Amino acid sequence: MSYYFISIGGSGAKVLEALTHLCVAGALPTNEKLYVMAIDPDIGNGNLARSSAALHCYNSFQKLQVGAGTQLFKTKVELANPFVWNPTEHDKCLDDVMSYQAYKGTPIGDLYEVLYTGKERQTLLNEGFRGHPAIGAAVMAKKVALDEHAAQENSDAEPWKHFKVLVNQDAKSGSVARIFLTGSVFGGTGAAGMPTIAKLLKQTFKSLYDENKVILGSCLILPYFSFSPGKGDLMNGQVYASSENFLTNTQAALKYYSVKNRDERVYHSMYFIGDDVMSPVHKFSVGSSNQENNAHIVDFYGALSALDFFQSDVRALKKCSYITHALNTEFNWSDIPNLVLMDAQGQKVKDLSFKTHFAQYVRFILGYNHLVKPVLRGLLTGKLAAYKYPWFVDYLTGVNADATDIKNFEEYTEYFVRWLVQLSGNGPHTRKINLLNPNVIRSVNPPAQIQPTCFRNCVADEDSGITVNELWYRLSESKCQDSYAAGFGKFLRVLYDACEKR
Amino acid sequence: MDRKQKTALQIAGIVLCYLILGIISYFIGSSLAKTFLGAGGVSHTAWVKRYANLVITMASFSGAVSLIWYLSARFGMPVSSPFGVGKRTIWAILGVLNLLFCIGVPNLLYAKLDKNFTIYLLFLVLFGVVGYYGCSLLAAPANYKYTPLGARQLLSPKTK
């Protein structure tokens, strides 16, 4: 089987960020490839920039040879090309996309004028659909080049052309293509894209869909944040998303999905993730690079819903899924579902405690940042004496620290730490996110710094027994038996294994 | 073999090493004494008895220094940051101290025992170099295994 993940809009991008980290940590059920695509007309979107930065880093260092038989980096990613599909061209408005001038004065043109206000039709779409899904739905339906007619209409049919090839290849080889979409139901791009793209996918792969060789899942993000534009944030008459309309939009969207699913099922599985506590976004932005919201527990659950979809039995897919947490004022590890490991045939091999697995990964990243990163270059240039670092002598002599994959890995560790800190930050109204020890990270400014005394219980409610000294010792005494591990990847493998709670 | 077993084995190895070195220095020293003990002086038999005590004392001091290095490296110098590690200075200081014992112990505690430079040389080589250096090289905690001078060249894996 193969995994396909399509993020739609800014909220989808945040789920993508969370899924990226889970993917790198080896949380997906098998080592099948994950194909990733983002859809966003707002190419400069800050959320998308941050989430795709981590993913692009992984795309670079995933070739590090950490060996077989490990969860670390086991799922390789393939990025769509172009990675971010923009259904609109630069400085185009809806009138341009729909070729309004050709229909002006005709009955179609008149209907079009009734359905959309003048502002909606003439607002430039460089910063997305501004919380107006009706705009997005029309644009996407016109631009997604999954069939030959649309491909002919659109001069550049990628990334949809290659996407279609991959899915058909899966079907030919007897695999199941699991396609998962994620986006908000209350915004602009997500609300427009989620039903539209899904419908187009179903139509394109109809025969495969009916045979359950292509299955569609979705994570529908419900409102979880609010914002208000300040006095100077908007120009006169500007179209923008308004958080006061989120709940109304959501209600309308959910009614739509309810009717659609009853009459004409599109998604095999739908996951609804939201929050009854609205996190305030302090810095309003219409879009572009200024729109960058902190990581949120909702994004994390969104990514977990993708895992659940990827690891579900095709014969027993859950139609609609919800999740809750035990205590109203906090999130704990017990509120996170377990992982499932599967074999190549999609049969469950075993359950893995998510906390245990993720904690090992957190120690791995923090351990690297604290013990290795500050000294690696000094060691390789000879400024620091190698004898002091047995693990360097055993595994890293002669490694080129300026190699692209190593630099990308180190950059990735900074993204991960920042994401983790944001995720674990206490939410509004004193609600606690008890996933990380709040004292373990001293600073997220690169290079991230940790409090060494907190390392052994860096993950909340767990004493791993692995102090910094213990980790150092394990690194120094370990022998990597995996013949497939080599170079810098071998060292990372040793470090990862040393972080395992024994 | 787990770490506890390895630690116990290494400590036992250090003790055994000094036991063997003591036996070797006893026999070599006894042979050497025949070359410098005067005809009218103390008998060889009596000299050997006192020399045996010197060897035991010397092996104990030197062994203790080796064990101090081992136990400090194993338990007494925990790493909490990647800076300030290695501790070669401490290793070197203990090594110099050991060498000083090799000269000081016979001179101060066994001043009346007839000896010449060959006995001092014997102690320096066996207890000072072979004993201390050999033990710190071969029975080393993993986190300081390359601290002794030359350890990296002698012990690091040739191929990865």
What's this, in brief?
The complex is a heterodimer of chains A (502) and B (160). By secondary structure, chain A is an alpha/beta fold.
Plain-language structure description:
The complex is a heterodimer of chains A (502) and B (160). With 502 residues, chain A is of the alpha/beta class. Helix content of chain A is 43%, strand content 14%. Chain A contains 18 helices and 15 strands. Chain A has helices at residues 9-24, 46-61, 94-97, 100-103, 107-115, 118-122, 133-143, 148-153, 160-172, 189-204, 206-210, 246-263, 297-310, 354-381, 390-396, 404-424, 468-477, 487-498; strands spanning 2-8, 34-39, 77-85, 177-184, 214-221, 225-226, 269-273, 279-280, 320-321, 330-332, 339-342, 348-352, 432-434, 441-443, 449-450. Chain A has a seven-stranded parallel beta sheet, sandwiched between helices. A two-stranded parallel sheet of chain A has the order 6-8. Chain A has a two-stranded parallel ribbon with strand order 10-13. Chain B has 160 residues and is mostly helical. Chain B is elongated. In chain B, 34% of the residues are buried. The chains are: A alpha/beta (502), B mainly alpha (160). The A-B interface holds A 370-372, 374-375, 385-390, 393-395, 397, 452-453, 467-469, 472-473, 476-477, 486-487, 490 and B 3, 78-83, 85-86, 88, 141-147, 151-152, 156-157, 160.
